[in-house]
Design goal:
single chain; 226 residues; mainly alpha; Arc Repressor Mutant, subunit A; Tetracycline Repressor, domain 2; 2 domains; elongated; Tet_transcr_reg_TetR-rel_C_sf; transcription cis-regulatory region binding
Length: 226
């Protein structure tokens, strides 16, 4: 193994160890020595890669956010197609995949809020609206002009859906309270999607109880996917 590859592997072991410790016991309760012991390396080697504990913590969060911004992430490919709200089931499924894969990183967000007042995560959420408007403004505006969507701001509805799905699956999987909506998680997702689709109906077209709403325009006469 080349020297540079060995150094990278060593840094990765430090990050892996720190992620496990931070997500389990928090930032303040984790020491650099604990990270070194968990990584199976010396304390000096940890400092060789990272100047301090906060740099390790920030690196872990930034890595997660870069994954969320990666165009190749399947969730982002759903966003890029801008087929909302017909794609809500697919969106929910891919958000669940992200939550399953990055549970420890998601826990770091809560730790950052508690121990750093959101210092390392604020930028990601401050730029959220801009990112979604850049993707969805034109296609959803066109659909509203064709009468396919109602008065609800559709980009706001996209952001609401994304945040709700992330929150819902995080609580279900990592907060120790499955079925916290009092129903099977997939049924809860189904009910939320119905709420979103009914709210997006053009004015004057009611949402029949227990039925999926039909859209006007090109989609008239077709039932929305459940």
């Amino acid at each position: 193994m080349a020297v540079s590859e060995s150094r990278n592997a060593s840094a990765e072991e430090v990050l892996k160890a720190a992620l496990e410790l931070f997500s389990r016991q928090g930032y303040g309760a984790t020491t650099m020595r604990q990270i070194a012991e968990k990584a199976g390396t010396s304390l000096g080697n940890v400092y060789h890669h990272f100047k301090n504990k906060e740099e390790i913590f920030a690196t872990l969060l930034n890595r997660y956010f870069q994954v969320l911004l990666d165009p190749n992430l399947r969730l982002n490919q759903v966003f890029a197609r801008a087929a909302f709200p017909e794609d809500l089931e697919e969106m929910a499924a891919h958000i669940e995949e992200v939550v399953d894969r990055f549970g420890r990183e998601i826990m770091l967000i809560y730790i950052d809020v508690i121990e750093f007042s959101g210092k390392h995560v604020r930028w990601f959420y401050e730029t959220m609206a801009e990112r979604f408007h850049r993707i969805y403004d034109e296609p959803l505006k066109a659909r509203k002009e064709r009468g396919e969507l109602g008065e609800v701001d559709p980009v706001f509805a996209v952001m609401l859906s994304v945040r709700w799905f992330f929150y819902f699956f995080t609580v279900e999987k990592y907060f120790g309270v499955p079925m916290h909506f009092g129903m099977d998680p997939h049924q809860a997702v189904h009910e939320f999607i119905k709420v979103l689709r009914c709210g997006l109906l053009p004015r004057g077209e009611p949402c029949p109880p227990g039925q999926e709403p039909a859209h006007k325009g090109k989609a008239k006469g077709r039932r929305a996917r459940s």
